[in-house]
Design a protein that fits this description.
Immunoglobulin-like, seven-stranded mixed β-sheet, 17% helix, 50% strand, alpha+beta
C-alpha cells in the first residue's frame, strides 16, 4: 500500500516536470538536464546531480535510467577514499628516500541511496557507451523515486482532519548523450604547490589536474629538489600520477622524505608530462625548519548526523575535521552515544592523514535498537592534541504504521465518538445518518485512490522491468 501512494504522486510529478519544474514535496534536484557532449565510443564520462532533502527526516531513494541510453548509465555516490603507494627514489649519492603517492579510489555502483534530513547528497551519473555505439544523439531519463520500503509521514489538512498521508514524490532528469568517434586529448594542470615543513617531516607536493577530453590520461610528474643557489640537484624523481578519466579531476599528493636534508631554503623544479610532452613546468621554493617551528592546530567543525531516524536504520555519523595548522596531521574521531544518560555505544573512526588546509570526514556508524532521544558527543585526537567536544541530537522513532491504516483508525475513532455522542444525547437519527453518509463517501474516495494507485504502480513496475531488460 505504501508503494501505491508513492507511485501515485510520482506519476503526478510528470505533469510538473513537463512544465520544467524539478522540485517537489521535500526533494530538490539540480540540474534538471544533463548533457554528455563528444563522448567517445567505448569511453567514459560522468556528471553530478545534487539531491536535496528539505524534510526533517531521512529518505531512501531508488535511482534508475530509461530510454535509448539506459544500458550505458550507472550511479555512484560522490564518496572518494584514498590509497597510498610507497616508492623509493634514488639520490645522486646512491641512497634512497621514501616517497608516498596518494591517489583516490572511487566508490562502487549503487541503485539506492539515503539522503539525511536537511542535507544534500551528490549523486554521480556514470556513462560508459559500448565500442559499437553509432555516432549520434541519444536521449534518456534518470528517475529518482522514494524506495517502496521507505515509510514517510507528511501531514495534510483536509476537511478539518489531519491525515498522515506519508507521500513523497521523486524527480525525472533528462540525460542527453552525444556519441563521437573522434578522440580528444585535453588535460590541464590547475595547480602545483609545495609547503614548508619541519625537519623529519615529509615535503608535500600537490598537483591538481582536470581531463577535459574524452580519452583517459595518465600524467607523469618529474620533481627535482635543488639547493638554495639552484646549482645542485639533491633529490630527483619521476612519478606516475593516477589515471584520470574523461570529465573528471584528480589531485596527486606526493610526500618526499626530508631525512637526508638539513635545515634551510630549497627549490623544486616540477614538470608535468602528458604523452611525452611537458604541459606544465613550475619552479617552487620551500623551507626546512627546526623542530617546533611550525604549529599543529585543528578544529572539529561539526558532527553530521540525521536529526530524525527510525529503529533499525543504519546511521552515518561524520566528524568534520579541519587541519588549520602548518603541518600534516593524523586525525581520529572518538565519541559516544547516550540514551537517557547511559552510554549505548562508543565511537572510534579510522585514523586519517589530513594535509595542511584540508578538511576530512571521520566516519562511524550507529544502528539504534529502540526509540528515544539520543545524544552524540565526541572529539578529534590529532598530533597528541584534542579538539573541543561537540554534540548533537538524534531523535529515533519506532517504525510507523501504514498511512492508510492511520486514516482508517482516525475514521473509525471519529465514527465511534459520534455514535457515543448521539447515543447518550439522544441525537436525531437524521444527523446520525448524515454523519454516516459523510464518512461513507470518504471511504469510497479512499478506495478509488487505492485502485488508481495500484494501476499506476503496475505501470511503473512495467517501466522498471523494461528499463532492466538488456542490462
Amino acid at each position: 500500500m505504501a508503494g501505491c501512494r508513492k507511485i501515485f504522486l510520482v506519476s503526478i510529478l510528470g505533469i510538473f516536470l513537463s512544465m520544467g519544474i524539478v522540485h517537489a514535496a521535500g526533494i530538490g534536484i539540480s540540474p534538471a538536464k544533463l548533457y554528455f557532449d563528444d563522448v567517445l565510443k567505448g569511453g567514459y564520462a560522468e556528471k553530478e546531480i545534487i539531491v536535496q532533502n528539505t524534510n526533517d527526516y531521512s529518505i531512501t531513494y531508488d535511482v534508475f535510467a530509461n530510454g535509448l541510453n539506459k544500458d550505458w548509465i550507472a550511479f555512484r555516490l560522490d564518496e572518494v577514499s584514498f590509497q597510498f603507494e610507497e616508492v623509493l627514489v634514488p639520490l645522486p649519492s646512491g641512497e634512497k628516500v621514501s616517497v608516498l603517492i596518494k591517489t583516490p579510489s572511487k566508490s562502487s555502483e549503487i541503485s539506492t541511496f539515503t539522503v539525511p534530513a536537511k542535507t544534500n547528497t551528490n549523486l554521480i551519473v556514470v556513462l560508459q557507451p559500448p565500442n559499437d555505439a553509432a555516432n549520434g544523439e541519444y536521449d534518456g531519463h534518470i528517475y529518482i523515486v522514494p524506495s517502496e520500503t521507505d515509510e514517510v509521514e507528511v501531514e495534510k489538512e483536509e476537511g478539518g482532519v489531519a491525515f498522515g498521508l506519508g507521500i513523497e514524490v521523486g524527480a525525472d532528469v533528462l540525460a542527453v548523450v552525444n556519441i563521437t568517434g573522434k578522440e580528444i586529448l585535453d588535460y590541464v594542470v590547475e595547480s602545483v604547490s609545495v609547503r614548508s615543513t619541519e625537519i623529519d617531516y615529509p615535503i608535500t607536493f600537490s598537483i591538481k589536474g582536470r581531463n577535459l577530453g574524452n580519452v583517459r590520461v595518465t600524467p607523469k610528474i618529474g620533481i627535482d629538489i635543488l639547493n638554495q643557489n639552484k646549482t645542485e640537484v639533491l633529490i630527483s624523481g619521476n612519478f606516475s600520477g593516477d589515471e584520470v578519466w574523461p570529465t573528471t579531476s584528480d589531485t596527486t599528493i606526493i610526500n618526499i622524505s626530508s631525512d637526508k636534508l638539513p635545515e634551510g631554503q630549497y627549490w623544486a623544479d616540477v614538470k608535468v608530462y602528458v604523452g611525452g610532452n611537458v604541459i606544465k613546468q613550475q619552479l617552487l621554493t620551500f623551507d626546512l625548519m627546526p623542530e617546533g617551528a611550525l604549529t599543529t592546530r585543528g578544529e572539529l567543525k561539526e558532527i553530521r548526523k540525521p536529526v530524525w531516524a527510525k529503529v533499525g536504520e543504519v546511521l552515518k555519523i561524520e566528524a568534520i575535521f579541519e587541519n588549520q595548522g602548518e603541518l600534516p596531521v593524523l586525525a581520529k574521531f572518538k565519541g559516544e552515544i547516550l540514551l537517557e544518560g547511559d552510554v549505548v555505544k562508543t565511537l572510534e573512526s579510522d585514523e586519517l592523514n589530513v594535509p595542511v588546509g584540508d578538511t576530512a570526514s571521520l566516519t562511524t556508524y550507529f544502528t539504534p535498537k529502540k526509540a528515544g532521544r539520543y545524544i552524540v558527543s565526541g572529539y578529534v585526537v590529532y598530533s597528541k592534541k584534542y579538539t573541543f567536544t561537540k554534540e548533537g541530537i538524534i531523535n529515533v522513532e519506532s517504525k510507523r504504521l501504514s498511512s492508510w491504516v492511520k486514516i482508517s483508525l482516525i475514521l473509525f475513532a471519529i465514527l465511534i465518538i459520534r455514535w457515543v455522542y448521539y447515543y447518550y444525547t439522544g441525537g436525531r437519527k437524521s444527523e446520525v445518518a448524515y454523519v454516516s453518509n459523510k464518512y461513507k463517501k470518504i471511504d469510497e474516495n479512499l478506495e478509488k485512490m487505492i485502485r488508481e494507485s495500484k494501476r499506476l504502480k503496475d505501470k511503473i513496475k512495467k517501466l522498471k522491468r523494461r528499463s532492466a531488460w538488456g542490462r
